[in-house]
Amino acid sequence: MKQEFKIIADLIEKKTRVLDVGCGDGTLMEFLQNNKEIDIRGIEISKSNVQKCIGKGLTVIEGDAEKDLSQFPDRSFDFVILSQTLQAFLNPEEVISELLRVGKKAIVTIPNFGYWKVRLHLLIKGTMPITRTLPDEWYNTPNLHMCTIQDFFSFCENRKINLYKSIALQNFKSSKITNSNLTLKNLTAVLGIFLIEK
Amino acid sequence: MNKNVNIKSLIIDKPLKLDCGETINNFPLAYETYGILNEKKDNAILVFHALTGDQFVSGTNPVTKKDGWWSHAVGPDKAIDTDKYFVICANVIGGCMGSFGPSNTNSETKKIYGTSFPVITINDMVNAHYNLLELFKIEKLFAVIGGSMGGMQVLQFVSNFPNKVKIAVPIACTSNHSAQNIAFNELGRQSIMADVNWTGGNYSNQNKNPDKGLSVARMAAHITYLSKNGLQEKFGRKLQERDNLKFSFDADFQIESYLRHQGAVFVDRFDANSYLYITRAMDYFDLIKEYGGNLSKAFAKTKTKFLIISFTSDWLYPTSENKEIVIALNAIGVDVGFVEIESDKGHDSFLLNIPEFLDTLRDYINTSYLKN
C-alpha cells in the first residue's frame, strides 16, 4: 500500500466512523476496515471504481463530493478523508468547509506545488511542471487549484482551522511539519498530509 | 389467463387487512422457489417482480413456455446464484399468475371478481408476501431484491419488517410515483376501459376480453421502458419487410411492427383487470407520505444494508429519484451503496444482460453473504 495511506491509517483511531471522499478503487477503505475495525463509507465519482468497491463489499456511493456531501448530517463521521483531490475541485474552499461539517476531524492530503523539483521544472524549462504526483499536461490535468504546503498552512490559519497534525512526505520518509521548519518542508516534501478540525 | 399448470400456491388463512379497509381471508399466494434452503436458513433471497412479471423468475415459465423474466440474473452460476442461494418469488396479490386477483372467482357470488376486487397497494402486496417467511420458517431473509415495482416492494418490505432482512437491493425504482408515471399508467388504464370488450371490468363473466385496449396499454408502456437512443439505434426509420412506404396505416416501420407484436403477445399472458389493479397500486405508492414527509423515518429502525442501482438512460425511474432514497438513508447513517450503470436501454435495463450491472449485483451479493 502507498506510504501516504499508511500515514493516513495511523492518524485514525480504531473503531471509529470514517468517510473516504474520492475513495478510488477502495484500497484505503479495505485496509481501514480490515485492520482498524472501522465503519467506513466512501464516495467516488468514477463509475468503474464504484463498481469495484461495491464488488469488494465496500459501502460506496457514486457521487460528486462538491454536490453530494450535503446529504450527510453534521458531524456524522469521526474522520473524513480527502486524498490528493482538493486541487481538482471547482471550489476547494467550500469542500473543506463541508468536510469539517460532516466530520469531527478531516484528513487532507495535497501534492505540494512548492516541492523543489516542481519549482526547478518551471524555473529551468519554463513549462508547466510534470512530476510523479503531477503527471498530466496543463491542457488535460484535472488539477484546477494547485497549492503549496505553505499555502495550505496560511489557508487554515486565516479560517481558524486547527492544524492538528501536519506531516511532510518525501519519497518514503515522513516528518512533522512545524512553523519553524515550514519553509524547508515546503521545498522538500512531495506531499503534505494534514489532520484538521474546526 | 393462467392454465394452472405447475403453479405452487400457499393458501393464506390469516386475515389480511388491506389499506382500502377490506379484509381478505383464505386467499392464494402463488410462488416458485429455486435452489435449496440451507440448514441455517440464512441463504434465502426474496425476489419481487415488476408490473407484468410473475413468480417464474428463472428457468422456463410453464405457462408461457418462455424463459423466466429474470433468467439473465437468476439461476445456476448467475448473479443471483441458485446453486448458493434459495430464491423465492411470488406473484403479487392483484396479479394473474395464480395469486389472489381480479380474475379469481368470488366464492360467494360464484362470479369472477373483475372490478369488484378490492383495490390493493404495494403495502398489501408485501404483507401478503411476508407469509412466505413463515411457510419456510425463515427467521431472517438474506436478501430482498427487485427492480421497478419490485424495488418499491423492497423498500416497503424493509420498512414494514425492519429486522427481517440482511441486505436490500432496490433497482431502478422510486419512493413515490411521479406525476409522469401516474400519467402513463392512467393512459394504459383508459385504453383498457375504452375497449368495448372491457364491459366495466366484467368481461370474463361474458366470455369477452379487451385485447385491443390491453395491447395498446402495453404498447404505450413499452415505449416508456426504452430510451430514445435505444429505439433509434435498434429501429431508426427501418421499414418492416418492405422496400417502400405503402401509403397506408399498416405497420410500415419496424418500430410499429415491434410494438404491435409486444401488445399482441402480452394479451395472451396478462389479465386486463390485473393491469388496472397493479398500476393503481404503483400510483398509490408513496413511502414519503406514509412517513409524514420524511423518507428517512421509513428506515429508522432497520439495520438492513442497502445497495441502490439506477441506469443512465432510465427516464421512467430516473437516477435522481433513486438518489433520493440514497440521500434519505445516508441522512440516518444506514449502510447504503449506490451506483448508476451506464446503459442506453432505458428502464428495461434491469431485465437485460448488462455485464456491469449483473457483475456488480453478483459481487455485492456474494461479498455481503460472507460478511457478518
Structural description of this entry:
The complex is a heterodimer of chains A (198) and B (372). Chain A is an alpha/beta fold and 198 residues long. Chain A has a single domain (3-197), classed as Vaccinia Virus protein VP39 (Rossmann fold, 3-Layer(aba) Sandwich), CATH 3.40.50.150. Helix content of chain A is 35%, strand content 26%. Chain A has eight helices and eight strands, in the order αβαβαβαβαβααββαβ. Chain A has an eight-stranded mixed β-sheet, with helices on both faces. The mean pLDDT of chain A is 95. Chain B has 372 residues and is of the alpha/beta class. Chain B folds into two domains: 8-178 and 288-370, Alpha/Beta hydrolase fold, catalytic domain (Rossmann fold); 182-279, Rna Polymerase Sigma Factor, Chain: A. The longest helix of chain B is centred in the last third of the chain and has 16 residues, at 254-269. The N and C termini of chain B lie far apart (44 Å). The chains are: A alpha/beta (198), B alpha/beta (372). Chains A and B meet through helix 3 and strand 3 of A and helix 10, strand 12 and helix 11 of B.
